[in-house]
Structure formats: C-alpha cells, structure tokens
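Subject: mismatched residue count in predicted assembly?

I count 660 residues in my input, but I want to confirm that the predicted structure covers every chain. Input:
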Amino acid sequence: MRAFVEGVGLLGPGLQGWEAARRVLTGEEPFRSASTIIPASELLPPAERRRTPVPVKLALAVGQEAFQNAGRDAAHTATVFTSSSGEGETLHQMCETLASAEPEVSPTRFHNSVHNAAAGYWSIATRSREASTSLCAYDASFSAGLIEALTQVVSWRKPVALIAYDQPYPEPLHSARPLLASFGAALVLTPEATGRTSASFELEFLPDEGKPTRMSDSALEELRLGVPAARALPLLEALARETEGDVVLDFLRETRLRVGVSPC
Amino acid sequence: MQPLVISRFCVANGLGSGSDAMLRALRGKRSGLAPCHFDTARIDTYVGSVLGLDDFRVRPDLGEYDCRNNRLAQLCLEQDGFALEIAAARDRYGAGRIGLYLGTSTSGLHATELAYRRRDPTTGALPADYRYAETQNAYSLGEFVRRYLGLTGPGFVVSSACSSSAKVLGNAARMIAAGICDAAVVGGVDSLCLMTLYGFHSLGLTSTGPCRPYDVDRDGISIGEGGGFALLERADRVEPGAILLLGVGESSDAYHMSTPHPEGLGARIAMQQALDSAGLEPSDIDYINLHGTATKSNDASEDKAVFEVFGGRTPCSSTKGATGHLLGAAGITEAIVCILAIEHGLQPGSANTTSVDPALKSNYLLENKHAKVTRALTNSFGFGGSNCSLVLGVAG
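Triage response: the counts match. Full output below for your records.
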C-alpha cells in the first residue's frame, strides 16, 4: 500500500513543532528533553477552548500543524485518530466522583470522556463532515493508525490525516500505566504526489516478530519506548533526514509493519 | 465496495444469549429492560442487563483479563457455534491472515471504577491487583478476543462511542480489499458501568421507564449491555441465501459533542454513502433498523434524515426498546437484527412504543411485520458526531 506524505505535525518533549524537531532528528541540533508545550487551539471558539481537555488540545495542535504544512483544507479530509491513553484526566476526575458519596458527574466531563473526544472537537473546529475514526491498540496504537490511514488512502483514493497522541495520566492511574511525556504526531497522506509531497510510504504488514527500528540517540529511544504515540519517531526521523530506506514498526504480538520511505 | 459474506455471527444481550434467544424475543416483541439495580447506581432508570456476569469467569489462561466487559465478550463468543467456526477459519486461512476489528466505548472501565473505591487511604494508590492494560485500556477487548480465538492477524479497537461496532465492518472491508487480511472477525462489546449510567443521567438523557423510541412521550434512553461478533469473508463463491455486507457509509456531524445535528445532516451523508458504496437506490432497501435511541433530539433528527433520503414509505424501527442502547455494541447488534430480519422475513415492531410521535414522518413499525427483506440498512450514531450506516443483503 502506497501513500504520499504531504504534511507533518509534531509535538513532544524538546520537539516543539515539526520545523524545530526536524533539526533535532537530523542531528543538526542535540535533543534536549523539556516539557511539551501544548498551545491552545486557535481552531476552537474561546468558550470551547477552555472546556477542551489537554489530550484534545494536543491532537488539535499537531493536526493543525500538519495541515498547515500540507497547505490543505481540513474540512474535506478524512481523519484517523489513534491514542493508547485517550482522555486520562477526565477519566480520573470521573472515577473519583463516582467513588465518592455524591456520584453526580458533570455532563461536559462525560462527553469529554469518550475516546473520540479529539475527533469530535476536530470535526466541529474544522467543519469537516468527512469520515473519522478513533483507534486504540495499546502500545501498538501508532501502527494501528498508520495501517488504517494507508488502507483508507488506497481504498478511497482520497487524502487522509493520521493524528496520533498520548498524554500521561494523573496519579493514581499514572503508576498503573506510566507514560513518559506528552507526545503527538500527525501526517497528511495523499494517494498521489502533490506539490507539497516530501516522501512516499510503501507499507507492508508482516505476520511475524522482528526487531523494530530504534533511535540512535538514547534519550530519543527512551522517548520512543516511553509513549505509544512516540513509536512514530523512527518514521519521523526518516522523513527529517530525507533518506531512502525501510522503517520497521512494532504492531500487535506476532506482527509488525515495514514502511519503505522514499523522499520525493 | 466489493460485497463480503457474513458467514457466522453470535450475539448476547438483555434479550438472552445466542441468536435463537434474540429471534424469539423479537418475534414476541419482548423487552429485556428492567429497573436498574446495577452495582451502587442510584438512578431511577431501566437497563438491559445480561444475567450471570457477576459469577461468570473468563477462561483460566486469560484470567488476568477478567472484568465485566471481557466476561461478556467470552459469553458471547461461546454462543451460536462462533468460536468453533473461527477455529475452522483459522485452519482455512491461517491465524495470521484473519483480522480482528472490534468496537467498544467503555471497555473494562468498571474495573477502574471498582479500583477507585479501594484506593490506599494514605497514598491514594490503586490496589495492587488493578490491571490497567487487561481491563481499562480500550484495546483490552481486542487483545482478550485475539487470545481467546487464537488469532495473530492485524487488528485494533475502534472507540468512537455509539458508532464503534458499526464502523469496524468498514475497517474489515477495507483491510480485506487491500489484501492485509483474507477474512476478519468484527464485533463489539459494551457492559454496564457507573460512568455511562451517571453520565447519560447528568445530560438528562436517561428515561425513568423502559425507553420508547419514536413515541410521542419518549423521554430518553435505557442503557443496555451486550456483545456481537461476525466473521467476514470474501464473496468469491457465494451460495444463494448467503448474508452479505453490501455497503458502508461514515460521516461526521461537525456540530456538537453530545447533540446530533438538528437536521440530521451527518446521518443523511452516512446513509447516502452506504447506499452509494452498495450501488443501490433508496427504494432497494426493504427495512431500516434505526439508531432510534428514544431521546427527543436523536429521533427527531434521525427521522428528518431518513425521510430526506428514503421518503416516508420504507418500513423502519428501532430495537432499543428491546435491548436498550448497547452503546459501543449497538452497531454489530443491530446489524445482526438486520440479518435475522433477512433470514426470517421479520421486520421487528418497536417494543414499548405505543403512540408514534405525529411530528415524525417515517413509516415506523409498532407491530412485527412478516415480509420479505432482501436488503436492510442500519444506522449507528455516536457522541462527537460520529455516524455510520451499513447495508446488508442476501445473495440471490
């Protein structure tokens, strides 16, 4: 399955936007981990901005960056959202309330608790009535999103945006499921090369175990392993370096993905 | 799209376990809804609960996945000879060539609700026996079923609220068309938890009685729990009478997080796309299984959308008065209702509804109608404005 990369968005610790992160991923600048700064989304009206949970802001921010870089209108593009963690802060607040003597929950919090909250806000913000899905495959959530996005591109012959994001949980959930940092990555993928295309992906599903591509920088490798959405890093590194080659991504048990990356 | 054969399915919900139990209930227009006594919930509402889950245990080798949602998943997989059929499919295709695409909205969230009651009084820590990955995470259902059925192919969980387990049929169709897998198990499971009971209650959307879709006095939903699974295969050699997935349509409302578009715009797009992908006209559909949640706003906007696409003649009904709203399992369950409608020439009348809202213009069925169903459409709409319509039919 083949698709072309038209735009990239990225936010992570010390990876503040795709342009800045590219210099780190090519090795021009050293990786210095710092708290991920998640900007308030300009896409939403001010009242909605205040009510949106952090994972939604993260997803909207990387999605918006990818579309800006692609120069494409989000209103006419299908989306694949993928996240292992979903809406952690909201989950925590609701479980605390439900365990209390007064289990009356907030209606806004309830609709913000769904795994597809980011997709819902995105659709409202971009006025997109295109198909949108919200996936989870635990640590393999990025690979799940990538294979679904590529499948949509080849099935529909239309552009599709992949938005992967994970936000660490508050305690006590954090101890049960520690995530290293806030991380979001987005790719706008098209069926044909366009004026903004930077590379193509040739994706193959392989029904066996194999070693995934690692990051040569040990701190970036720690990040890759520490956040499911950061499993995108080797693919992003290949895009940043504009080198031709294969990237192998972990998928579910006994499976993996091979992505042939070719700069265009 | 290329049609796919639905060669086997299984179902379990408040109407009973197995498709025979469900068919009997539909034939008798029986409702599985009863006053809510779930866990510590103190809400004046009705629910469709599955009996026996409290004492049910998952297969011992999968004990770490034990939670209400995965119990319900296993109970469902044990029905209708489904697990045996998948074992045969595994031999036919190879375990790695069968995809697994499942939907859920809350997965094993009730395990987290229970763990939050047992936090350490000084540190606030969750109990040591709490297992996040195997219960709470949305993919818990996927990995549990993958292990239970011995599959090693591609897959994931879709969690787009109440459209989840309708959308997975689209995922499977695309993956099979792209050659990523040769067949796929699709389905969905959602189980009762406090979050959805109190959450829908906080929105003023739970009925105090059994829900009455399309009724002039409808006053909200009844939450239910349930599961359904189906095996999808390529339709290369189709026997007459085989059940087919013919079309899938997916759209977004771009309107509001928890209220449907008042004119049913997203719903209309999903239905039209499902018809287009099946290469069918609205007049080709013999029965529509509505989303029909029994909230004022859903039924009004869905009715507008259905009338816009189909006019007022196509027989339609919601089966949520029988099952309750199964949330992430609603899509697959109502696809199975459509299969039963096709196989048995039964257009199910709406349980609990007594007087159709005169403002609604669709041809809504209060009583069972015995008529040939060659093609049926089913709607599933969710929070976040996520819409999905499916078209099913029978091979001639």
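The mean pLDDT of chain A is 96. Marking this ticket as 'not a bug'.
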